[in-house]
Amino acid sequence: MNPIIAILKEHQVTDAQITELFQALTENPFAAMATIGQLGIPVEKLQQLMALVMQNPALIKEAVVELGLDFSKVEAAKAQLQQ
Question: What predicted TM-score, i.e. pTM, was given to this entire model?
Fold first, then answer.
């Protein structure tokens, strides 16, 4: 299992909430940040999660693929942010 998804599940985040989070990430990364804030995960765990992603950004792609979402939307959102 993807470590991002594992940390979320460790904090009783449901499969539906995980899918919603990554769906938001693929469509609007800023909306994903708001969604993360609503999950009730302790700040120290969020920091651990962010450090994990910063060290290995490919984990996001792995999680998106594992959830059956379209990774090309993540790339498009990333390009939009860089403009």
Answer: 0.76
